[in-house]
Design a protein that fits this description.
Layout (H helix, E strand, L loop, with lengths): L5 H11 L6 H26 L7 H19 L3 H20 L1 H4 L2 H21 L1 H4 L5 E2 L4 E2 L2 E2 L3 H24 L1 H11 L1 H6 L4 H27 L1 E2 L6 H14 L4 H17 L7 H15 L3 H15 L17
Antiparallel strand pairs: 1-4, 2-3
Amino acid sequence: MNRSLVPWVVLAIAVALPFVAGDYWLYLLALAGAYGVVSVGLNLLTGLSGQISLGHAGFFAIGAYVSTIAQLKYNVAFPLALVIAVASGWLIGLGVGFPAVRLRGLYLAIATMAFGISVERGLYHFKGITGGPYGLTVNPPKILDFAFNTPGRMYYLVLAIVVVTVLFVANVVKRRPGRMLVAMRDSELAASSLGVNVPRLKVMAFAVSAALASLGGALYAPIINFISVEHFTLWLSITFVSMIVVGGLGSIAGSFLGAAFVVVLPELLRGFGGHHQLVYGLAMILVFVFWPTGLIGLLQKSFDWVASRIPRRRPATPISEAKPT
């Protein structure tokens, strides 16, 4: 099969899934889609531009709470609440991205981790608005009079936003901004000598990544119908990092593979009883050790291996070159 057809086959399978999968699996896949939106933004930041963030749970929380509060307390329609959540993440990402101009590596990771913890504590402190540990109940989203009040409908809503997100990020990666990000990741000095405004590019990468994390949070809230501060801890930020490493650094498809791995695999391992977390941890270690390019690298190698064993038809000999008998 031609590799260019793979995305269309995957999309066709994704559209057909609600006809064969139960509500619980659709719920899990919608959750993986929301996490995947965050992961693809984090991959843009870490995989392409080389900046490490341990604070994306903070942006994720901002998207979830801004969208929910806008709908619950100000009767804002869901599409507009989604836009407000993304814009909030973008603006706060601009502010958080400025330290990235001077910090790198472990120092940047710790600075972003402090941001994530600050957001978590802020959710506790402003419990009159956020509900603190008691949380907020989230109503099913509506577009006009159509309510996404079933797992199947919510799955299709998330799928539509995932498709738009993938097209947007793919467009960024293939064009000049994507090439500048890679150049900056490989060598900031070389990128600067080629005319790249490195400080500005770092801040913009951070802002885009934060906006996508907020978009994922705004999708996450109606999927689980309830949000509280316990959902947005440092552990979630670490989980987002593990998603992009398991899926494949710098890969759009790998971001969603990693999200699906983290969400779906623990459910598949329930048969191991109390040991399923141990098996899950071993599975992650195996991926890290044997497939450093992530699941997407493993899939690409498998695809090439299968393709190399499919006999190809020889081109027909032109009549003019055929030897007379």
